[in-house]
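Question:
Write out your own:
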Amino acid sequence: MSKQELTIKLAGPRGFCAGVDRAIEIVEKALEKFGAPVYVRHEIVHNKFVVDELRDKGAIFVEELDEVPDDAPVIFSAHGVPKSVPEAAQNRNMVHIDATCPLVTKVHVDAKRHRGAGRSVLLIGHAGHPEVIGTLGQLPDGEIRLVETVEQAKTVEVSHPENLSYVTQTTLSVDDTSEIIAALQERFPSIEAPRKEDICYATTNRQAAVKALTPDCDAFIVLGAPNSSNSARLAEVAKAAGCPKSILIERADEFDVDWLENVKTVGVTAGASAPELLVQELISLLRENFNVSVEEVAVTSENVHFSLPNSLSA
């Protein structure tokens, strides 16, 4: 029996971004410098494959600083942490290394700059996400108000509506965030925007690549962890762009190939914390079950690189 024909359109860019590359390298360099174990507060990035690989090399992942011995080095994840966390590490004289993505750090700096200028600050983001927790924790409790939806943007109460600013989580849907910003600007015409877009280049580029592919695809597969904000947004973007048969999977071994019955062209991408190996695993699985042809479709190229912390770059 002949195999079903299947065209795979690979979105580009996809997979690791500069912030994820840097965070993983920080853990690896710390293990080289200090030896195992090295502790990491929270998953360094939201991907089980990456976390398991680093755990096998000697990293120990914890949720809170009080789980870390005083004499062990600790790394803060790429998502950023409330400023109380490095302060607590400093008070305990711990060796601590900050793997926060520099683009998240930019949001932290902006939030503090706005408050220093006397502005009220709104944060557009998803409650409970580590990045949002970290950004909210840059200022005293209640100093930043979280806005998650257009409806909240239309009703949020602020103490200084004439002196207002906003920042955003870096991994949001570009389109959804634009709607929230438009609602805020309609209510507060003088609201101050970030000097440079907060949604990071990698999130924007990966969403643009998905949008470019969806008109030619019958289905879309996104590789990424279920708790990865940027990965989940990619699956949502595919649906919103006209490809309702869209799915987020963590690895090929959880994928049911019957899902592709009657599909002629499938788009494939990976979130910014998902390694290319997982994409190639999926392609191998599809080759076993279909007569596959693969097309790379890139909307832009990326050459961003972030330097390591001084303590590890020597």
